């Protein structure tokens, strides 16, 4: 339920998050504070406008943020600087979401990308889980949770003609689980994901370059565990296998792999050559790649490529971005509340005499794998949980552990939350496509998986804390 109707005349409010992205890119490359201030201001205005068209639960986040500002103003002297920092964190999250939405928009209308997804969904039963979980990972790197929407739609399309209802439900469930787990695994390492970017920004001394390889190992671990559990629990009921795709994998996957290669290698190269942070490289490169990808697509009859790009750009700003207003409000407020809440929480914890430095480092590392999915069951967005909790912890240097170990623990927990929390977009989409409740699609489908994968991730993070 929305509190207010969202007027159509607000369609051009999509210019606000686009402007936030432009200013944050300028700040990333120049370090000039007034770009960050301008981005924060536009982001606050965008949230104020978009709040008139979102559900009451989203408005509640806005009210909580306002309450925290009042609390900070009444109890601290440097509340204005802390509020400005929190707004900048929220603006960064909004800018990243906007940039990634551009390439998601470009990819979702690409016939080659859609055909790639259809190819994966039509594999024979013995290969389908592996194809969809790897495909979910590859698509998730570019489309984020849009990968669940795309692949999930194609998956349900491929099972719709199955006459046996039980077989149809079993296949749909297994296909959705494969896609879910494939997407969740990207959260362990992807430079385009909120998990890695937010975590690196709040863990002192952390960098994506140092955490990427251990994060990839985490992703492989959870993918293999998911595959193993599927093989163990898959139904044994015999059924005639539907016709499967016989095309060459290299031919069908080439468009997706090319897009991934350009984006990931481009981000890494831009980061290495310019020294800009990974988030700055992502925000600046991804929209450019998206525009080029649209330019390569066949324009509608009667339109030139230039006119097609112009039309798509206007549509994105005036229609697509405003349609994401709920996500934009939630993500900005999660970053804002996490940052300002941590500012208020740190002295409160110190005032209570809680000395977290006395807690063994291995306990903290292990706990981060589990705390994030647990808070996800209570409705706490991982951005909020990580931004709120990590600043309270002792720094990795103080604990005597490498920052990458803590990053791996946090992103691993984020991945588990993405597969189990009934409040995350990924689980909500899987539930809608699978025609089950979010609780069923989350902890019901992935409860055992979370326990096994969480145990493996805990051991991996603890091992890294020793060997790195």
Automatic annotation (TrEMBL):
Keywords from the UniProt entry: Membrane, Transmembrane, Transmembrane helix
Ranges that cross the membrane: 12-29, 34-54, 60-81, 93-114, 134-156, 177-202, 208-232, 253-272, 278-296, 328-350, 362-393, 405-431, 443-467
Organism: Paracoccus gahaiensis
Domain of life: Bacteria
Protein name: Uncharacterized protein
């Amino acid at each position: 339920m929305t509190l207010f109707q969202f007027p159509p005349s607000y369609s051009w409010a999509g210019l606000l998050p686009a402007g936030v992205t432009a200013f944050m890119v300028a700040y990333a490359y120049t370090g000039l504070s007034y770009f960050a201030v301008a981005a924060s201001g536009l982001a606050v205005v965008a949230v104020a406008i978009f709040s008139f068209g979102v559900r009451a639960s989203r408005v509640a986040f806005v009210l909580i943020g306002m309450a925290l500002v009042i609390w900070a103003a009444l109890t601290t002297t440097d509340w204005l600087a802390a509020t400005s920092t929190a707004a900048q964190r929220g603006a960064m999250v909004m800018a990243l979401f906007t940039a990634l939405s551009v390439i998601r928009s470009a990819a979702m209308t690409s016939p080659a990308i859609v055909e790639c997804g259809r190819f994966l969904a039509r594999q024979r039963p013995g290969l389908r889980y592996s194809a969809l979980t790897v495909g979910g990972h590859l698509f998730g790197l570019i489309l984020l949770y849009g990968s669940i929407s795309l692949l999930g739609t194609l998956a349900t399309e491929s099972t719709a003609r199955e006459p046996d209802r039980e077989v149809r439900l079993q296949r749909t469930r297994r296909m959705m689980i494969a896609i879910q787990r494939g997407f969740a695994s990207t959260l362990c390492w992807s430079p385009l994901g909120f998990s890695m970017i937010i975590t690196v920004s709040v863990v002192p001394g952390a960098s994506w370059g140092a955490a990427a390889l251990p994060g990839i190992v985490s992703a492989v671990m959870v993918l293999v565990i998911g595959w193993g559990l599927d093989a163990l629990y898959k139904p044994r009921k015999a059924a005639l296998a539907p016709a499967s795709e016989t095309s060459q994998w290299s031919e069908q996957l080439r468009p997706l792999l090319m897009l991934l290669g350009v984006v990931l290698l481009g981000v890494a190269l831009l980061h290495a050559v310019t020294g800009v942070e990974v988030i700055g490289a992502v925000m600046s490169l991804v929209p450019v790649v998206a525009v080029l990808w649209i330019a390569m697509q066949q324009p509608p009859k009667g339109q030139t490529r230039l006119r097609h790009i112009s039309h798509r750009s206007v549509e994105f700003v005036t229609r697509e971005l405003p349609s994401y207003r709920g996500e934009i409000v939630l993500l900005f407020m999660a970053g804002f509340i996490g940052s300002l809440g941590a500012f208020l929480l740190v002295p409160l914890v110190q005032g209570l005499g809680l000395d977290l430095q006395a807690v063994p480092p291995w306990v903290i590392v292990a706990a981060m794998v589990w705390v994030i999915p647990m808070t996800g069951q209570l409705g706490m967005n991982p951005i909020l949980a990580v931004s709120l909790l990590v600043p309270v912890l002792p720094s990795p240097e103080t604990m005597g552990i490498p920052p990458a170990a803590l990053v791996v623990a946090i992103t691993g927990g984020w991945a588990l939350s993405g597969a189990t929390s009934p409040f995350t977009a990924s689980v909500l989409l899987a539930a809608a496509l699978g025609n089950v409740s979010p609780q069923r699609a989350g902890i019901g489908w992935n409860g055992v998986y979370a326990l096994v994968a969480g145990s493996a991730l805990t051991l991996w993070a603890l091992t890294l804390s020793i060997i790195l």
